[in-house]
Amino acid sequence: MTKRKIQYWVIPPNADAEFAACMEDVLEYCSGKFTRYDSNDGGVIDAAEAREKGSKPRDNYKRRRMHALDTNKDGSVSKDEFLAKPKEHFFMMDLDGDGAITANDLPPRMARYWTDKTDKQD
Q1: pLDDT tens digits for range 80-107
Q2: Which helix (H) or strand (E) holds 90?
C-alpha cells in the first residue's frame, strides 16, 4: 500500500484541519476489507477467495499480492498477515510518533492541500 493510498483512506474527504487518524481507524478499515475477501468466514483468505473478487485481468496482480502478504507461505493469508502492512505503513507515516496521523505527518504538498481545503470550508 502506498503512502498516497493511505492518505486518502485514512483522511476522510470532510476532515477538518484538526482531524487525526489513529491506528484503530486504520485497522477497522482494513479489517472490513479482509472480511469482504474472506467469503467463507474461515479466518483466512485463500487463492480461490481472492480470485472470486474482481475481474480476470487482475488475477495476476492478486496472485502476486497474495504471495507478498502470505509471510508464512502456507498458501493463505491470515488476518494478522493482512493487517501487518497497513500497520507498518501507519507507523512509517506517523512521523512524530504520537500514535495519530495528522496534517503535520503528511508530506508538504498533501498537508497544504488538506489545510487549503479546510480553510475554504470555514
Answers
A1: 999 998 888 888 888 888 888 877 777 7
A2: helix 79-93
